Amino acid sequence: MNLVELEGIWTRLGQEWVHRDVNLAVARGELLALVGGSGAGKTTLLRHIIGLTRPARGTVRVFGEPIHAGNRAAQQARRQRFGVLFQHGALFSALTVYDNVAFPLREFGGLHEDEIRALVMSRLAQVELEPRHAQLVPAQLSGGMVKRVALARALALEPELLLLDEPTAGLDPERSAGFVKLIRSLHAQLGLTVVFVTHDLETLSALASQVAVMAEHRILVAGTLEQVHQFEHPFIQNFFRFRAVVDEREGL
Amino acid sequence: MSRHSVSTLHHIAPPSIERHADQWILRGDWTLQALRPRLKWFRFLLRTSTPELGWDLTGVGRMDSFGALLLWKAWGLREPAVLAMAPDLHTAFERIRQTADMTPPPPRRDWLQPVVSMGEKVLRGADEVRQFTGMFGQVVIEAARLVLTPSRIPLKEVSATLYKAGVTALSISALLGFLIGVVLAYLMAYQLRNFGADVFIVNLLGIGIIREIGPVLVSVLVAGRSGSAFTAQIGVMRVTEEIDALSAMGVSRHQRLILPKLMAMLVAMPLLVLWTSAAALVGGAFVAQIQLDLDIAYFFETMQRVVPVQNLYIGLVKGSVFGGAIALIACHYGLRVQPNTESLSANTTKSVVVAISAVILINALFAVATRGMGMPGR
Ligand SMILES: Nc1ncnc2c1ncn2[C@@H]1O[C@H](COP(=O)(O)OP(=O)(O)OP(=O)(O)O)[C@@H](O)[C@H]1O
Ligand SMILES: [Mg+2]
Fold this sequence. Notes:
Chain A is of the alpha/beta class. Chain A has helices spanning 42-50, 72-79, 97-108, 113-126, 143-155, 173-190, 201-207, 225-230, 234-239, 241-249; strands spanning 2-13, 16-27, 31-36, 57-62, 65-66, 82-85, 161-165, 193-197, 210-215, 218-223.
């Protein structure tokens, strides 16, 4: 069953077509990596899935329904089933780290403040932030910390679907590995579905069960890493050229 | 691959809890989404449960941190003696175990707080004054530097600001000026007619509008319109680190951001004052014609005789000074913005309030300083 389905998406931004007939389906439980050159339109595609923008043509279905279907309560309930990590964090600058992560939990309703506290502290621990960081405001965080807090916020409700725009950009290799481990364990435990944009081959090969390559305004190919690797296209050859080097070094 | 990947879309298995003999048996998904519809009920059941009995979690499908937390709390923050569950549920409890009783550093409460915050306010005020003076000095130095190298005057920025703060304000300021002129003249006409002093409307309107109302009206308008825009612009540049980027390239923020605004306002404001006062006078003349049968041509002809031209000069100088004050205050608060939205809105508000207050204060000083000038023969 597909959690996310994009059919015949055409998008025009400014004077240019960013997407021409993009098709993509993400089955439940997949860990799909979306790769593509800078400016290929990956973030724009994620924004369609979240429902922030609408394509000029084509349909977006999330959890089997059009993203804008239903009344306000239905839409909100649907949005609480997925978590989003924006490329630049998009933390609420006036709130502390703690309140940023607690925000979706409070919006969800029905939780006691001590439960919220335990959940927030556990999310922060998951992304390797220390309790003393909880009272900082976003302006006092380093670039990588912003990413990790944003990830903690996206994970706050442990949603079924995670949409992550470059989750490991700006993280050191150890933290990237920690991120991979965290997503894997959540995946095993809760069967999450994750769509993540990445330029990082290590994360890609360690985490992705499916890879979709975006180029020439569409999804060139989607499949397992091996399938994608075999695909003859200059972009793909270039993108994975360095992977061969990595593999060699690791003696694979 | 996950053991859940084949489940259907509406896949939530309703959670349940039952007591069988000496065991609590849990089934279904213990996740936030699944528990939500009957959360109160489950809280109640768990409160009445007894941790001493055995707990059988083998029938649980999925458990997220919230489900684990609920149970953990019900168990009194420790594992019950008899507990059976699938191995991968352990990770969920593991996550919660370390943080369930963790308290973030509590916000400190201090009885001296009121005193401290009052002191902080005073210090902040002093700091503001210091910062404002520093900025003013920097701007003066930059201006002096530009006098030596006129080729570096940021003409583009100046003309852009002239357009945004001046040209685009023409229609609204003319409209406001005209309406104020109409209202004032209308009220005066009634009073003056009672005394048979109809012609004095020219003196009153002439001096009142040209010297006082025109400059102040325009200043209030511009402070709200352009002052807030300046503050917000510089403030957002602080939030997005654009100001730091400028500094990193060796570009002075005073020269590139503040000076052009100041120069443009010094020029634009007197022109706006002239324009607005003219509109107000036209409005006044219009009403005088209707209410007092004073010919419009006669109105303006008389004005030249009874209103000394110094009043116009005073009005224009005031406009320029007010414009400079508004620009400096707006930039000052823009630079004080901390990188968060709360601070941005607070400083924008402050900028407008302080600018208008400053204009009224400076106006009073002007009134005192120029009290002997521009008054028709006594
Ligand atoms: N609001 C907008 N108006 C006009 N064009 C836009 C807008 N937003 C994005 N674009 C253009 O759309 C294209 C795709 O942008 P997008 O942000 O989706 O790229 P991306 O694949 O996420 O790139 P990156 O890997 O660098 O983040 C770019 O060429 C960009 O210039
Ligand atoms: Mg992007």
